[in-house]
Amino acid sequence: MTERHLADDYLDAARQQAELQHGSRLRDAADDVLAQLAVGPLVLLASSGPAAGLAAVCAALRVEPTTWARVTLTHRQELPAEGDVVFVEATLPDAGWLHAVRQRYPDAAVVVPRTGVPAALAA
After folding, report:
1. Which of 101, 7, 89 is nearest to 44 (CA)?
2. What pTM did the predictor assign?
3. 15 versus 119: which is more confidently predicted?
4. Residue with more model confidence, 22 or 75
5. Cα angle for residues 69, 38, 60 (degrees, 5° grid)
6. Measured distance CA(42)–CA(62) in Å, rounded
7. Paired residues of 78 in beta bridges
8. Quick check: 41 and 66 in contact, CB under 8 A?
9. Reduced to 3 states, what is the DSSP secondary structure of residue 67?
10. What value does the mean pLDDT of the chain take?
11. Which pLDDT tens digit goes with each residue over 58-117?
């Protein structure tokens, strides 16, 4: 078994995020995220550039009222509208990121496109 390092995880995440620069892959990721979202008004949040792009596409494609914003996790920010809060991320977040989200947005759901995510991690 090959030993993995934090740098390997970082490079894998960077590759997955770079894939979203291709229109067809961005659309596939958006379709997957849309299939995971609840019905009704939503506020889609993202903490990275690639995730913000994905959240924006998802907000534009939804029929229900949807807003999106890029936020920093250093403090809770005022939300742009009413609705259930969902963090859209381009890659699987790590435990530290999840902890920061839970501290600032305790009721938020987290959605990651299963496209490109190893099946064992997407389940």
Report:
1. 89
2. 0.78
3. 15
4. 75
5. 45
6. 10
7. none
8. yes
9. strand
10. 82
11. 999 999 999 999 999 998 888 877 899 999 998 888 889 999 999 999 999 999 998 654
The answer for residues whose C-beta is within 8 angstroms of residue 23's C-beta and 6 or more apart is: none
Say yes or no to pLDDT of 9 above 70: no
> C-alpha angle 107/86/79, rounded to 5°?
80
Helices (H), the chain: 6-19, 23-36, 49-61, 95-104, 119-122
Do 91 and 112 contact (CB within 8 A), yes or no?
Answer: yes
* Distance (Å, whole) CA 68 – CA 11: 27
Tokens of 96: 């530290």
For 81-92, b/e burial (b = at least 16 CB within 10 A) is eebebbbbbbbb
Residue type, 99: H
Tokens standing for residue 34: 């849309």
Q: Which two tokens stand for residue 63?
A: 């029929």
What would the two tokens of residue 39 be?
């019905």
Rounded-to-integer distance, Cα 98 and Cα 111, Å: 12
- Using an 8 Å Cβ cutoff, are 37 and 111 in contact? yes
